User: Fold Glutamine ABC transporter, periplasmic glutamine-binding protein GlnH from Parasutterella excrementihominis YIT 11859.
Amino acid sequence: AAPAKAEKVLRVGTNPTFAPFEFQAKGSNDLTGFDIDLAKALGKQMGYKVELVNLGFDGLIPALSTGNIDLAVSGMSITEERKNAVDFCDPYYTSGLIVLVRPDETNIKGINDLVGKRIGAQIGTTGATKASSVKGADVKQYNNANEPFIELDNKGVDAVINDQPVVAYYLVNGGKGKMVGDIMEAEYYGIAAKKGNKALVKQVNEALAALKKNGEYDKIYKKWFGA
Ligand code: GLN
Assistant:
């Protein structure tokens, strides 16, 4: 008999420290989250088996460039700088940065009060870039997105800058702190592909449009963010 046709594999890189988008479910090695469900649904729609690859956030773009992964699905904001290195699919989620401080903080009411303060952020993120733009700030960068929260608790930093939906999820799930100031300018998450892989970008965009049309995207959205 003819050998079974091998299923096509789509290697999807992600940094699973970013709940509710990608994280490790408690007591399990399995990755879960909005992006994970979306990546699996897109893979299915495109006729691929999805293989998740756990990487540092700052390792995602290099892994795309070397061809170690096909796509990065990791709450990655579409930025002009990143567009020089990768190609983005259509935006799939609107986000924005926020400042988190300790519950008893009274002096810091927003980003303008961070001059000269110690700010924690994850390496390679838009939060780290924003923190670095604050005058005289001592920016401490961490490998994963949870370490800055722990450091805030431990008084190793005075504030954290991270994506608002991630900070909100942290607080709802028992994390300590309070958000101050407004959500900063809108950032749009996009799935990234190797620069020049127009065919894959087109495939993903078509699959994403199909999931939006058939209600699957809404189902996944409701599961993680409510109505
Ligand atoms: N959206 C932010 C960025 O693109 C943070 C992403 C993340 O930490 N996963 O830099």
